[in-house]
Design goal:
Largest sheet: none
Strand content: under 5%
Number of helices: 6
Structural class: mainly alpha
Number of strands: 0
Distance between the termini: 78 Å
Order of helices and strands: HHHHHH
Helix content: 55-70%
């Protein structure tokens, strides 16, 4: 489609006279790449071995930035790690949940956990608290229903 056709109002490629997409035509298909992106990818792929070789040689020669690039690609940074809290209290009761939250807070203060890790763990403990609360409410409602049935009201 040329810009000339669009200027004179011809329908091209599913567009109306004003150049807008017609009903039912969303334009490019999902995942379609921009022309500039496609061209850049082709250029990069054609010389990727040469570029990689130059960066590796620069890293061997003592270029710290090149070494960082190589290491970042070979050893990606860890997103999460296993957290070991052997003395975490039992969360079978509301008191245990409260103690677990306190233990997590103390672990952050001591530097054993990062704030992000503590936030994740606190979320897990909070989900446990909500589950306990739901179980307790269900038991209370069942008891009230049983009393209601027994009295015959």
């Amino acid at each position: 489609m040329s810009s000339e056709n669009r200027k004179i109002g011809m329908k091209t490629d599913g567009r109306d006279a004003k150049g807008r997409f017609t009903r039912g035509n969303a334009g490019k298909p999902r995942g379609a790449k921009h022309r500039a992106t496609t061209l850049a990818m082709e250029l990069l792929e054609s010389g990727i071995e040469d570029v990689a070789g130059v960066v590796v040689e620069a890293a061997r020669g003592g270029d710290l930035m090149a070494a960082r690039i190589v290491l970042d690609k070979l050893i990606p940074s860890a997103k999460e790690r296993r957290v070991d809290l052997p003395e975490l209290p039992d969360t079978a009761t509301a008191a245990g949940v409260s103690q677990a939250q306190q233990h997590i807070l103390e672990a952050v203060a001591a530097g054993a956990l990062t704030p992000g890790e503590a936030s994740t763990l606190s979320g897990i403990v909070e989900a446990r608290r909500k589950a306990l609360e739901t179980q307790e409410l269900e038991a209370r409602i069942s008891a009230l229903e049983n009393i209601d049935r027994a009295t015959g009201s």
